[in-house]
Amino acid sequence: MDPWFGSVHDATVGLLRRAGYRVVVPEAQTCCGALAAHDGHAEEARRMA
Hints:
The structure is a single chain. This protein has one domain (about 1-49). It has three helices and no strands. The chain has helices at about 1-20, 35-40, 40-49. The two termini are about 15 Å apart.
């Protein structure tokens, strides 16, 4: 998902941190496949899930 919305994710993390929240993003975090599933790419979504 980062390739599509990386700047939005970065801005959201920054906003949450400025609001005083501790944001933890696991290094191995990847896309869950939901966007691929919604776009009709079922096999790709299964691999990502």
